[in-house]
Amino acid sequence: MRPILFFLFCDLFKLDLNENQDLLAYARSIEYVHLATLCHDDVIDNATTRRGKPSLNVVSSNKKAILSGDYLLAEVIANLAAQKNLEIIHALSEVIRELTVGEWMQLNVEVNLKEANKVPSPEQILEIIEKKTASLITYCCTTPALLAKVPAKILDVAKDFGKNLGTAFQLIDDILDFSTTNIHTLTTVQNETTNFVLVQLLSLDSSYLPLLHSQSEQFQTNYAQHKFKQTLDKAISNTEELALEKTMLANKSLDELFNKLCEEPDVKINEKSRSYNQLAYHSLKTFTQHLLSRKT
Question: Which residues of the chain have a pLDDT value below 50?
Fold first, then answer.
């Protein structure tokens, strides 16, 4: 998903892969950073599965999972250093710092929730989402902008788009966790206590806090209760409203981005450039809609 978004923004800013094979190195670095965070996160979270399959730390070991993540990050540094673009390296280093701070914040939230029964605020969870999911998605949008040397006003709009798209993407992911046939397994609830829907649920009714420590049978008994289902539906509805708000903001930023690009001198006088921008814009619109309307 992230490399696709990167190349769509390359199209928007008229960066041609056929003329610039170095773009592949930037796309690869985005996915390597993402994979590295997954390797490390599974160890930190004591995870046993990833997308329904055994996670790397289970298939191999915690040590090998950590080393794999470290190796991927080293590859990123080597690949980007070869491009000799300090601005891009600096931008990615900021993303990695945000990812790390976000993970640290998430750990603190989980400890406070499980050990002190302290429910985090929605604002805290949104900040974690922005630092973890949204930061890397934003980088997919801003790197092509930096490579194309667009004006600061256009770069800022690309940032806004990425931040809102990334936040909406994660909120929908959180909703989908609660929308599967088996609803939310006990293991997932206990491992993902920063899920926005779960935080909404506990904010609406903190009496469900013991679920984080309960056995599977107790969880299923609670889920079968009408009151729990009503509260969960409300938590999902609140999350859907916020995801829709972020989606609308992302679409607004994309429209603004296209309009600002059309105001650029070379586009004003060049019909071919305008048509190229329109095609890239509509491709991004379609991709965004597909991303935010997924059911799995």
Answer: 181-182, 184-186, 268-269
**Which amino acid belongs to residue 106?**
Q
| Residues whose CB falls within 8 Å of the CB of residue 210, separated by 6 or more in sequence, listed in order | 218
* Among 124, 76, 131, 122, residue whose Cα is nearest residue 103: 131
Please classify residue 269 by burial: count the beta carbons closer than 10 Å to its beta carbon, then call 0-12 exposed, 13-18 middle and 19+ buried. exposed
- Taken in order 155, 134, 43, 55, is the CA torsion positive or negative? negative
pLDDT tens across 74-108, in order? 999 999 999 899 999 999 999 999 999 999 999 99
What 3 state SS string does the chain have?
Answer: CHHHHHHHHHHHCCCCCCCCCCHHHHHHHHHHHHHHHHHHHHHHCCCCEECCEECHHHHCCHHHHHHHHHHHHHHHHHHHHHHCCHHHHHHHHHHHHHHHHHHHHHHHHHHHHHHHCCCCCHHHHHHHHHHHHHHHHHHHHHHHHHHCCCCHHHHHHHHHHHHHHHHHHHHHHHHHHCCCCCCCCHHHHHHCCCCHHHHHHHHHCHHHHHHHHCCHHHHHHHHCCHHHHHHHHHHHHHHHHHHHHHHHHHHHHHHHHHHHHHCCHHHHCCHHHHHHHHHHHHHHHHHHHHHHCCCC
User: What are the boundaries of each domain within the chain?
Assistant: 2-292
Closest CA to 13 of 208, 168, 149: 149
Look at residue 223 in the predicted model and tell me its pLDDT: 59
Q: What's the mean per-residue pLDDT of the chain?
A: 86
How far is Cα 294 from Cα 1, in angstroms, rounded to an integer? 12
Shortest CA distance to 33 belongs to which of 88, 109, 85? 88
Distance CA 132, CA 124 (A): 12
Please tell us whether the domain made up of 2-292 is placed in CATH 1.10.645.10: no
